[in-house]
Design brief:
The longest helix is centred in the middle third of the chain and has 14 residues. The protein is 38% helix and 16% strand. Strands 1, 2, 3, 4, 5, 6, 7 and 8 form an 8-stranded mixed beta sheet that branches. It has 11 helices and 8 strands. Helix 5 crosses helix 6. With 281 residues, it is of the alpha/beta class.
């Protein structure tokens, strides 16, 4: 089985619609794909309706969190999307995205970049606006060669000149909320240092003690040594170790199925999730 547990659609900051995403996943030879848009479940219905025969869809979301001033992302799988407390927190994060993005555009303008809010809003379309949309605007303007190049301290990284904080969940609270909604939690790209500051391994141990289910070890932003280190850490802490592409369509260079999750790990995630079930056409 080929299993990719981290992808994005136009419901957040990907360039494939949810329907295109599942069709492209099938064409890429995947057996299982997870839709994990940022802080939203808006793509579920379209992805489910368009699901090709033989492909299994895992519903999920990538939750924006912050611990001791450091941003981190928590992948949540198979939770009940209607659970009110978790839904309210997702809405609070989404509501803060527009003012935050506007503030980042203003900072870029102060730095001499001729970006406009209208340009960013056009790129975001109906998706939950975020830094990748602003990065795409910088690419359009020729400020940076590609989206990844915008995520540096010069521009949009967590310590960047144009960075603006947003409302984010406490990760311990995120774990509690996802568990309360019957879901499973995996810490996304925990040592992706190229994105900015990361939480220490001691914090990962604390999250594990609080009920974290796994860590995303095999990811494009982890080099081979880091992947091996994370697999070892997962074994030490009794956590599941996942792998995934973090696919964003044409917005990033990663391909569907670039990194995969082992079938036994996927089976454990599916077994632990009780708020929703994987969907097969």
């Amino acid at each position: 089985m080929r299993i990719d547990l981290h992808t994005h659609s136009t419901a957040s900051d990907g360039t494939d619609t949810p329907a295109e995403l599942v069709r492209n996943a099938a064409r890429a030879g995947l057996d299982v794909v997870a839709l994990t848009d940022h802080d939203t479940v808006a793509g579920y219905a379209e992805a489910t309706a368009a699901l090709p025969a033989g492909l299994t869809l895992v519903t999920g979301a990538e939750l924006s969190c912050r611990l001791d001033g450091v941003s981190l992302h928590m992948l949540a799988y198979l939770f009940d999307p209607r659970e009110p407390e978790l839904a309210r927190q997702r809405e609070l994060v989404r509501d803060d995205r527009v003012p935050r993005a506007r503030a980042m555009v203003a900072k870029l303008q102060e730095l001499g970049v001729p970006v406009t809010w209208e340009q960013v809003a056009r790129i975001a379309g109906d998706g939950a606006v975020g830094r990748p949309h602003i990065a795409s605007a910088l690419v359009e303007l020729g400020v940076v060669p590609d989206v990844s190049a915008a995520f540096t301290s010069e521009w949009l990284a967590n310590d960047g000149r144009a960075y603006v904080e947003k409302h984010e969940l406490d990760p311990f609270e995120a774990i509690r909320l996802v568990k309360g909604a019957g879901g499973v939690t995996v810490f996304a790209h925990p040592l992706a240092l190229k994105r900015g500051q990361c939480v220490p391994e001691s914090a990962i141990a604390q999250l594990a003690a609080a009920g974290l289910d796994g860590i995303e070890a095999d990811h494009m932003d982890h080099d081979p040594a880091t992947r091996a280190r994370l697999h070892g850490l997962a074994a030490d802490l009794g956590l599941l170790a996942t792998g995934s592409s973090d696919y964003h369509g044409s917005r990033k260079t990663c391909r569907l199925g670039e990194h995969l999750t082992a079938p036994d790990v996927y089976a454990e995630i599916a077994d632990r999730g009780s708020g929703a079930r994987p969907v097969t056409a």
